[in-house]
Amino acid sequence: MDIQAYISSGKLELFVLGDLNETEQQEVLSLAKKYPEIQQEIEDIEAAMFAFDTASGSEPSNAVKNKIFASLDAERETETSPKELEEKEVRLYPAANPWKPFAVAASLTAVLAIGAAAYFGYRYYEAEERVLLALEQNATLADNLQRTQVRLDQLDADTKQLLSGNFDRVPMKGEGLPMQEDARVDVFWDRESSEVFLSVNQLAELDENSDYQLWAIGEDGPVGIGLVNPAEKLNLQAMQAAGEVQAFAITIEPKGGSESPTLEKLVVLGEVS
Amino acid sequence: MEEQDLIKGLQASDRQVQEYLYEKYSRALYGVIRRIIFDQELAEEVFHDAFLKITKKIGSYDETKGRLYTWMANICRNAAIDKTRSREFSESSKTNTIDDYVYGMESESGTASAVDGIGVRELMEDLNEEQRLVMECIYFKGYTHTEVAEAHAIPLGTVKSRVRSALQVLKKKADKI
């Protein structure tokens, strides 16, 4: 570059007078580092200005000189560091803090964010509750379905059993007996396969220490072939097999059943035709 | 005293160094202010504040960016310009606009009579009219070269080269003093 042309441009004078923008100042400073002629010229201009200002200037009055040194002495005496002064100022005039608007905005944002978080948190909680409820209902439905399926399978099996076998229906009644006049229970018996089923039509509930027991009465006397559930009405209850039977009877026995029937507690009786 | 020792002493608030600074630079610095503010009382008030500012802000002086005097002169020039823009100034004295300096040194509002000592008039007598105008506006009053170029319809490059040539003349003159 043409250093002489740069020097004669007048830019260095403006630099010394502080009349250049930041970019131009940086340019001059970096060129001055690079070219000693430019650095020298700057120093010459500074020296010339100082000489001119000194020559053309005038002494300030003694009054102002005394005032200046009184101020400087006072500052030395207070021994308060500028930093502490600044901190005091900040505390005295908090409104002057330039970050205040940002702090206010940040606080506002935080409050709004907390509000939003609480709202959505509640919504989430609600949704969670509903999902749990739905899952519970779903499980109940599945359970019901399962039970229905089991019952359907059982009915299906019962029907097949009845249709495929050769069952005789043996109605047992409580008429004429002292226990339950209105008791009615049907026994389905296949003579060939010896299979026995039972269906309760009407039978009173028992206390928890007693059970109804079904007896198959043949030539060798009564044989217990199973306990009867009085609550399971009009439903086939599978009993143990019975070969030669002349009559079926139900007695009330102690819990779990007995070896031989308690005849005083005979509830129903049906003879095989 | 070397400039570096001077700066160290100022940073330590050394009273003797502050006095040395005052003795060496007060005349030139006060001159810078007085060229902008004609009123003596007001100029001294600005000088008082500017001198205290210099001793306080000495920590921010960067010697890679120029001599100590240049830094101090710019503080004084800016303090004076700030004062002329204040309400106090417009109430206490006539505010000179840049157009007042079209007439140069001979105008009533000029600086010739504002300072004593050798006198600006003598120092400026070797300058031509054009050089005087840019010196008055930029060097003395602190207007920017772009303001002067606009106010007087002079190309920017011409303003710069006139500042350059005027200072060359003053440099020679100052060397003789």
TrEMBL record, chain B:
InterPro entries: RNA_pol_sigma-70-like (IPR039425), RNA_pol_sigma-70_dom (IPR014284), RNA_pol_sigma70_r2 (IPR007627), RNA_pol_sigma70_r4 (IPR007630), RNA_pol_sigma_r2 (IPR013325), RNA_pol_sigma_r3/r4-like (IPR013324), WH-like_DNA-bd_sf (IPR036388). Gene3D superfamilies: 1.10.1740.10, Winged helix-like DNA-binding domain superfamily/Winged helix DNA-binding domain. Keywords: DNA-binding, Sigma factor, Transcription, Transcription regulation. The keyword Transcription regulation applies. SUPFAM superfamilies: Sigma2 domain of RNA polymerase sigma factors, Sigma3 and sigma4 domains of RNA polymerase sigma factors. Pfam families: Sigma70_r2, Sigma70_r4. Residues 21-87, 123-172 form the RNA polymerase sigma-70 region domain. Belongs to the sigma-70 factor family. ECF subfamily. NCBIfam families: sigma70-ECF. This is Sigma-70 family RNA polymerase sigma factor. It comes from Cyclobacterium jeungdonense.
